[in-house]
Amino acid sequence: MLDALKFFLFVILLLVTIMLNQHVTSKRSAELDLELLWQIQDTKALYVVPNQTLPSGVYTALEQSMVIGSLLEEYNDVNTSWVGEEDWIYRTNLSCLAEEYQYVLLTFHGVDTFASVYLGERLLGTTENMFVRYRYDVKDLCDGETKELRLQFRSPVVEARERAKGRALPILPTCPPSMYHGQCHVNLIRKMQASFAWDWGLAAPSMGIWKPVRLEYYSSALIRDLTVNISEHPNTDWTVEVGVHIETGLSSVQLNGLLSFKIIGVPLVNEGEETLAVIQQTDEHGELLVLHQLTVRKDAVERWWPNGFGKQALYSLYVRWEDKTVNGVKALNPDTMISEKVIRIGFRTVELMQDIKSDGLMFYFKVNNVPIFAKGSNWIPSSVLPERSYDVNYVKFLLYAARDAHMNMLRVWGGGLYESDHFYRMADELGILIWHDLMFACSMYPTDADFLRTVKDEVRQNVRRIQHHPSVAVWATNNENEVALRQDWYKTKANYSAYLDQYVELYVRTVLPTVEQNDRWRTVLLSSPSNGKQSMKEPYIAENPQDPLYGDVHYYNYFLDGWNAAQYRGGRFVSEYGFQSFPAFTSWPEARSYGPAELSKLINHRQHSPNGNLPILEMIRYNLPLPTDTSTGEYWPELIYLSQLSQAMIVKTETEVYRARRLEHGTMGALYWQLNDVWIAPSWSSIEYGGTFKLLHVWLRDIFAPVHLIAFVNERRLLEVVAVRDTLAPAAEQWDVEMRIHRYGSFRPVDRHYESVRVPANSVALVTRWDVYGYLAKRGLHPADHLVLLYAYRNVTGQPGSHQQPTIPKPIAENFALLDKLKNMRKEQRVRPTIAVTVVSSVCNEGNNRTSVSLEVSVSVPALFVYLQLTPENSTLKQCQFSHNGFLQFQPIRTVKLTCVDPGCRNKIQSRDITVRTVNELLVR
Fold this sequence. Notes:
Blueprint: H1 2-19, E1 31-33, E2 38-42, E3 48-52, H2 58-64, H3 76-79, H4 82-85, E4 88-94, E5 103-108, E6 111-112, E7 114-119, E8 122-127, E9 134-137, E10 147-154, H5 156-164, E11 196-198, E12 201-203, E13 208-209, E14 213-218, E15 222-232, E16 237-247, E17 254-263, E18 275-281, E19 287-297, E20 315-323, E21 338-345, E22 350-353, E23 356-357, E24 360-361, E25 364-367, E26 370-372, E27 374-379, H6 392-404, E28 409-412, H7 421-430, E29 433-437, H8 449-466, E30 472-476, H9 481-486, H10 496-518, E31 523-525, H11 533-537, E32 552-555, E33 573-577, H12 596-606, H13 614-623, H14 635-660, E34 669-672, H15 695-703, E35 707-713, E36 719-725, E37 732-743, E38 749-760, E39 763-770, H16 772-778, E40 786-794, E41 813-818, E42 835-845, E43 850-859, E44 863-870, E45 878-882, E46 887-889, E47 893-901, E48 914-917, H17 920-923
Parallel strand pairs: 27-28, 27-34, 28-29, 29-30, 30-31, 32-33
Antiparallel strand pairs: 1-14, 2-3, 2-4, 4-10, 5-9, 5-14, 6-13, 7-8, 7-10, 11-12, 15-16, 16-19, 17-18, 17-20, 20-21, 22-25, 23-24, 25-26, 35-36, 36-39, 37-38, 37-40, 40-41, 42-43, 43-47, 44-46, 44-48, 45-47
């Protein structure tokens, strides 16, 4: 009876753990978080910050104690640079009892970066890699007495500087460009590469304990990680090969026990697979990998699918270790001989296809045997301070924003972090595939023995931790280092052979095999961009790593007209592309109190691109009226609006060309740069730091829509219209497409043109290539005065033109095509609308503090790119998003939804709280 009760309580605990989406922290293995209060101080004790909790960093602690202002305000990226030059000490008191446990280990899951670790007077060891887990045997020190646990941090800036001295071959680049206001030699240390500054981010050479610290008590073995290799067989089964990574302290030990396996709620084909006897020796580090195979019938589980293609079915895999002595008469405390772990897995196949094509190789992902057009973005850390990257709510917000914009892939960029467990769990739940770089970016790297040793530890530990997540689709060993070496970005040409040898030693001989040894479930690419398989043949450094006929490409062009679709060729897979814009006027720190000169100075300080603001200004000048009077209070609000409109148009045009060229050019991926930001600054992001959507992110809901109608003027000056379907059923649909030619100054169309097209599932179909300019010429109409609005209707009768019946169905897709630059519009079409915004309803849910407002936007004449924004007085509202923004309004009234997080539901949004801008008001000047 007692045994049955114990089992019942265990099952309840297990189910609660699964429901809370947490890994089991077993009472048996006694893996305890040290939720202690730490004191932080500099070595001279000039600054002492008490009562700090983990995760922690020096910048965060100094901000909270008001020793420094916020790192993200004003010019504090430079004003606080002294913090990164100092050494710092973390200290706390620790009391522990080893009792009857065989092993007591003090485990640091993330120390940033260089620290000497003491318990009492004993030096336990040193840390040198922020991505590595460090373990120390403290059994003999756990005697019940209170001892000081102390980490003495060395400045990463000074350490990097010291490592650069005396090198016969410099590791390039030695320093970032001067406009970054950054630090040097970050490539010599294993730290988040962006923490010394980047072209989108500030320098914040952080120090601290950025991940949990745990005391691990056990007497037999601890299950550290579970890896899986799930494969589908032609018959009715799935095979799940489970890798159980076991630890026995820090030395080799003979193990004799039993592993038990369960997939909760899923029967195994063979009951004998539920247990495995283990009699093996751990290695000299106390580690052992045990492989075991489980077989599951296909009809017992549902498949995991990317966002937009099906459900994200997840199952809990439970593994238990039990030493053979557990059931022995002499076992003093059998619970210390047991260890358990739960992970969530998904049944899916992901293949990176590189089929031979007449002109090269294809490059696309096939999930569950279905080709997937990858739609998405590039992910940089959610904060420049690593400890803040653990903000679960903000990470959730960003990933939901990606999901809601119909993204199915994010690329975790190689200059940031191996992300938190929560990040990957959320990606699993939302169906967001992860293209995962290893953390090497835009640089050459050293290959001395100590560096390669810590890199192996880093790659092994992180791949094992992340590997089981079904969302992870592919690994790449670095970001842009192949193309940087081949194209001589950092003046390596004079010593090319030496740098090539280092490249091969690091990526081909070290990182690549280490990933493959720990993950046999996925493809590993040598770089991004690369020519995929072709780069391996060339060998390793392709003559042209940006060849559009192979692999993936990164495409940026800042001085050709980005609104012009004819300039985009694309490639098989475009894993980076994009354009800069400025954050909203109200997002700048206390922007409403700045004069134009002061704001200009701050924006220029935060503009880290070597090209400065010139590309933004040039792209506006190409297509729009560019504000020129920098002394007026309207200069920056107008310029910021136009920059966001221009960015949205450029990314929209480029993305839609890539989607339309799926068949013609074999393009199967479009990941724009970049999703998020780390501070308020000019950048390529679609979401500002803090959560405000730029116009681009609002537009992405249509740009990436699974059912979409694309229209652009191609290189032959024909209006090319393409129907896009990412949906899998039905096998084909009949669409009717309506193209309305409008004058800019009139609600009524000048003319309508109709086409009908059969659109296959998960593909694209050409609707027409229409000589719209010839058509206008025959009617004596000027292109600069007109645009085309397009609507697609699903034909349910099978008869072309069914949309012309008295009851017109709702369009399944809409779009527009500009026929000339807006600045070329003739004067008679330049009309200024009278605009009214009316609050129809406003409701705030006190349970989640989310307010929802329904607005009606009324215009007297057509309004171009209507831009809605809350006034600065509503700064207490957070993460405010309009359902539509920057839109063309060719109807008198349009409904728009506004949602915000309103703590305490204290705000009442009224019409006067919303400002409106349009391109019209700039054209009529």
